[in-house]
Design a protein that fits this description.
Layout lengths: L1 H13 L2 H6 L2 E6 L2 E7 L13 H16 L6 E10 L8 E11 L3 E9 L5 E11 L2
Antiparallel strand pairs: 1-2, 2-4, 3-6, 4-5, 5-6
């Protein structure tokens, strides 16, 4: 089943123009969980030469969407808050993971972590999704 979910997730990702623009690759998806990677290219840097917060948020949001939709119901974000903990630069490969913390009939709560290639925490976020019946 996880292979089927990964293929379905990759099909949805292929339709996501913003994720394509960021160069995000979905690496794993299973019920309540997703992971993805993104290499920081020069186009993803801010004016200080650091990874743009919007790019980091985009990566976190993608795994949030994948994990919250992994149960088959359409899930849409109600709220996401993020804390940026470490700056990164071009060439860094970021990995994001979303883990389900709570699931009800109508909502899902997810912990989102973005780490660099050394495993250091770059950003920590929490996402709340509304689940359609």
């Amino acid at each position: 089943m996880p292979e089927k979910q990964l293929e379905e997730g990759k099909k949805r990702l292929a339709k996501d123009a913003f994720a394509r623009l960021l160069g995000i690759e979905l690496t794993e998806i299973r019920p309540g969980y997703a992971s993805a990677t993104m290499k920081v290219t020069p186009d993803l840097l801010n004016g200080e030469g650091l990874t743009h917060g919007g790019a980091i948020f985009g990566l976190a949001d993608l795994v949030f969407a994948a994990a919250s939709n992994s149960h088959g119901n359409l899930a849409l974000a109600l709220n996401v808050n993020i804390s940026f903990l470490k700056a990164t630069r071009g060439g860094t490969v970021l990995t994001a993971v979303a883990r389900e913390e709570s699931l009800t009939r109508k909502t899902g709560l997810y912990r989102l972590e973005v780490r660099d290639e050394n495993g250091e925490l770059v950003a920590l976020a929490e996402g709340l999704a509304y689940r359609r019946s």
